[in-house]
């Protein structure tokens, strides 16, 4: 009984020890504007290796920076290691930051994914570096200029987004961060040349400016509507505070996300007083015409009736009236045509419906007068245009009178002659042998029959080898670490010139190489222990010294400036030392 209690206590202690290891991801916020930044911290309570961050889809990631904390309280050691990334959104939307992973004492730990919602740009971005960015953006403004702030429903307004730059400021590059979404508006972008630089004034001062975007908007409902901001990432020249040999200020470049800010317009509803019954939402200044292709029809001809509206207004946003014809005139669905141009002032041109009408009987038939109503912005009143009634005279229709219509139309009946050739179906079947040897019992039959049995010993041998390989825990661990060493060495080569990721990958390559060759864990990687193990495996002292120097270089390079030449030299030295140790061990 005592032995059982002891075993139970050991299991509980093991469970408590396992709970001590924690690996978590902590975002500074889960909702931010497209012009804000997000900080994510990956924290572990025990040192690990092979840290793999998530892909950060939807963000530009900077980092990682590392922070290690060691403390002793009441005889207990508290340890934490944190990898910190700063994320800049590339677009609005909801994005998932996936799992990060790390290996601690041979076990792989993963963080819990979380979602981040990126909204439109905010007026005051909450950014730790906001003060510096504010100084960098002096004399630079992203502005949205709205042509009218109190239009009617379906009255065109235009919004022009501009980038103003003072004479003292300098912008090296621009990138559009966020495309405004014009909810509750019908919108149309206007082509513009964003490379042309203009001279103008902003707040009474002289500025240079470029036009970033032009758009025509037609509000679709009344009330207070929001015009979303345009956000730009700008590369800006800022002074370093130093001067060159000729006493000119030395400049450096930084990036800043700037927004035009949200604009609001108050949209007036169309008046109810005097609204015609046939009003379908047309707003502007229009002309209305109904034109028949002919009014006299004979010998089976058809009539084309064109219903057209032309002028300036919301031509794409209403329906044309439909003609009413007698039942003796068969009218087909119309062919719709549009000839519309959309400059910055709004839509102009014409729309039309072309109906095909075919008479069914002889006689005179009226097409009723048609009317079209619209709201005139100039007078602020409804107007109605009414056309005249159209009389269609059908002289004759083929087929309504068998003899008269055939004679009038000049149609002579001809007897139908059958030219098809028929033959009788044969009732007697004649079968002939194919003269081929049967497959059953042939040589190919027996070969295909016995081939599967030949594969049985091969499959058993491969299965036995796989089981032996799976049972070789130490060998599998060595092979895995060897692959990881090659992987991270290749990754370090890709990051040459980028200090932080280069030395992180190079350090991982060295650690996994030692794990593969010496069969040790991360917690055993003290430098005296590494030196002793390498000497016991036959490595030369000068090779061991070079290897430890590279490890020291990886450890200190993150916190000191490093050039591309130094990175290349460290990489070449690492490859050379690893190759020597491969031969010596």
Automatic annotation (TrEMBL):
One Pfam family it belongs to: BatD
Signal peptide as annotated in the record: 1-18
Keywords: Membrane, Signal, Transmembrane, Transmembrane helix
InterPro entries linked: BatD
Keyword Transmembrane set for record: yes
Transmembrane regions: 439-462
Source domain of life: Bacteria
UniProt xrefs under PANTHER family: BATD (PTHR40940:SF2), PROTEIN BATD-RELATED (PTHR40940)
Stated name of the protein: Protein BatD
Source organism per UniProt: Flavobacterium arcticum
